[in-house]
Amino acid sequence: MMMHDLRTYRSAEHLAREDQLAWKIAEVAADPVAVDNDVTAMIINRIIDNAAVAAASVARRPVASARAQALCHPFAPGSTVFGLADARVSPEWAAWANGTAVRELDFHDTFLAADYSHPGDNIPPILAVAQHVGKSGADLIRGLATGYEIQVNLVRGICLHEHKIDHIAHLGPSAAAGIGTLLGLPVEVIYQAVQQALHVTTTTRQSRKGEISSWKAFAPAFAGKMAIEAVDRVMRGEGAPSPAWEGEDGFIAWLLSGPEARYQVPLPGRGEPKRAILDTYTKEHSAEYQSQALIDLARRMGPKVGDLSQVDSIVIHTSHHTHYVIGTGANDPQKMDPKASRETLDHSIMYIFAVALEDGGWHHEKSYAPERANRPETVALWHKISTTEDPEWTRRYHARDPKEKAFGGRVVVTLKDGRVIEDSLALADAHPDGARPFVRENYVQKFLTLSEGIIAPEEQKRFLAAAEGLADLGAGDLMHLNFAVSPDRLGTPRPTGIFDYKGNGK
Q1: Which residues belong to any copy of the MmgE/PrpD C-terminal domain (predicted)?
Q2: What does the CA dihedral 95, 96, 97, 100 come to, rounded to 10 degrees?
């Protein structure tokens, strides 16, 4: 890996294009290096993973809304939409609909470092473009390897959340770079598209704080949609704000740590394979990633604690990130509110740990149901839980050594009789270095479980065969990487909006 030093340059200083981060990213994207077999296998796993969570969310309101918007933009040849057999829509709208479906349940892959991300969000926009332009499975694999590589390495080097910027600011550039690889675009074009995508996908972290709304699911889909539009615009000869990161009035100077700040972003050298996807990990549980190990720990501690009514207090000693984003350090009253939205409960480790203790596990729907959140004994236990930052867990959260890196915590349960029960877990069971690392069989089972009763068995088999045969899919065959469901599984029709306005007040 090559380390790229990143800082602000005054307008009077000369910064050659070849030394700009966007150009370095574009060079990586344009490098025709082969994709390793284990990377290809993991890309297939993540395509299956995305489809699994999309199937489980296909009838939910935000997904139905996004799908309805996409259907107002039919296009030929176009791209597919999850849940529909024959519909073809403009690729940016397919990315919008499918990206929302993938993200709605917060249940797909993750990478955490200086910042955090869900790199699987790259798949919907890159796949949508690949379908529309008739690319092959091998082309798609190359594009997705780039998307993962760029997003993961931006997340390694640049922290966004400390400046209250939503993490989709790393996704727009990565998706644009991946599309550039897919289409075989020259460095100059990818360079401009990456900068344009950064410029239009920088938004605030209020998306994930306070009264968290459905925009949490829409935000990555928006980034993917903007990336497609950015590439299209630049392919027509248009430019972008440059240098986007390093400029005197640019990203670092005014949105990150200021003109004196220094960052280092690792990127593969010329001819070096793109392997960053192998450093990412998926979720066994439908909840914020920092809660994965803690759910597994609650499952393990429940029998030791016994009668939960005898709990006096529970303190979760964990990383800065977990404490301040999903813990009591966020100072969010909504995280303790039984009437909070699903999106907010997903960002409350206090709620999640209480339910996991009581139920011995986690369910992507039942664990968030209003009647579950309002159960009196759950509320009582929930309000006895707090978090605190432990410097050692913060150090391990940011560690570069994979053997040191950890996303869990230590839990101290104090009972009313004074007894103390404590335990710790560094990594989720499903993590590559966890107790039960996810392999292809687990991804397939996740798909079959989440799509049961939604996708017909024959359609399940057809999709899995297409996904597992991705490397051999020819030009035009990528339409098979979709699934169809019965119309009665698509949820209640939603009110119309601007795009499907028919006139006459309707």
Answers
A1: 285-470
A2: 110
Angle at CA 105, nearest 5°, toward 101 and 110? 95
**What CATH code is assigned to 289-425?**
3.30.1330.120
Helix (H, G, I), strand (E, B) or coil at 312: strand
| pTM of the predicted protein model | 0.92
Domain boundaries along the sequence of the chain = 15-279, 289-425
Give me the phi and psi of 135, to 5 degrees please: -80, 170
Fold (CATH) for 15-279: 2-methylcitrate dehydratase PrpD (1.10.4100)
Structure tokens at 59: 């009838």
What does the DSSP assignment read for 69-88? HHHTSEEEEEE--TB-SS--
Identify the band that residue 504 occupies on the pLDDT scale cut at 50, 70 and 90.
Answer: low
At residue 343, the pLDDT reads: 83
Question: Who's near 57: CB < 8 A, 6+ residues apart?
Answer: 63, 101, 104, 105
Q: Which of 185, 55, 25 is nearest to 467 (CA)?
A: 55
For residue 243 the two structure tokens come to 């240098």
Cβ within 8 Å of residue 33, ≥6 positions away: 268, 271, 272, 273, 274
- One DSSP character per residue, 448-483 reads HHHHTTTS-HHHHHHHHHHHHTGGG--TTGGGGS--
User: With contact defined as beta carbons under 8 Å apart, do 24 and 145 qualify?
Assistant: no
CA dihedral 421, 422, 428, 429 (to 10 degrees): -50
What the block records as the tokens of 478 is: 């990528």
